[in-house]
Amino acid sequence: MLILAGLVLILLSAGLVFLDVRKAGDEAGASPPPKREGTMRLSIPSMRHVQNVPVYTAAAHNKPALHDGTLHLQGTGFPWQQEANVYIAGHRLGYPRTKSFLVFWDLNRLRTGRKVMLTDSQGERYIYRVYDRFVVGPHDASATKPVAGRNIVSLQTCTLPNYTDRLIVRAELMKVIQGPKPTPNKPT
């Protein structure tokens, strides 16, 4: 019975995050196409389950992205843009043996001043510092909107214990660390 209850909680979590992100994606609007192709990676040094987690840019209804990692909501900003809200959703519970498993389980413990790092496909690292956290209702898409004059990342997951609302943690870009330099071709 306990195993069945756990399975129900996982399915409920997946469904609630999916519905919430889908609604937010419908309201976020379009943004310019990305300059860098491929998947970003997310690391939060103070969170055990968030080390080099894939961040898939996709429409809100893309279930495989949330299954295999986290979802960068299509239509929201990218870290290399001057003013952006990089909106990333992830599961509290996720799926065992995937990068989504417990990825944002302890997001509520991420405190002001902590680091959030995004790495793009070219190896550039974007270092953010947490400055805010708040809760919104399941149909409130206001957290997906850009914040004037800032480059931020917004991390979203469900609230505990009943998964009814959405916890948003925001961090502002502090610095960019250039990726590895390409080695010049030597003439032969």
What does this entry look like structurally?
37% of the residues are buried. Helices cover 18% and strands 30% of the residues. An 8-stranded mixed barrel has the order 1-2-3-4-7-8-6-5. It is globular and about 65 Å long. It has 188 residues and is an alpha+beta fold. Mean pLDDT is 83; it is low at 7-36. Strand 2, helix 2 (63-68) and strand 3 form a beta-alpha-beta unit.
Mean pLDDT: 83
Q: What helical percentage do the residues reach?
A: 10-25%
Count every helix, treating DSSP H or I runs of 4 or more residues as helices. 2
> What is the CATH first-level class name?
Mainly Beta
Question: The biggest beta sheet, please?
Answer: 8 strands, mixed, barrel
Low-confidence segments: 7-36
Number of structural units classed as domains: 1
Number of strands: 8
Distance between the termini: 69 Å
**Shape descriptor:** globular
| Beta-strand content bin | 25-35%
CATH superfamily: Sortase
Key phrases:
8 strands, alpha+beta, Sortase, Chain: A, globular, 188 residues
Could you write a compact summary of the structure shown?
Helix content is 18%, strand content 30%. By secondary structure, the chain is an alpha+beta fold.
Task: Give the secondary structure arrangement, pairings included.
Blueprint (H helix, E strand, L loop, with lengths): L1 H27 L11 E4 L9 E6 L4 H6 L1 E4 L10 E6 L25 E5 L5 E12 L14 E8 L7 E12 L11
Parallel strand pairs: 2-3, 4-7
Antiparallel strand pairs: 1-2, 1-5, 3-4, 5-6, 6-8, 7-8
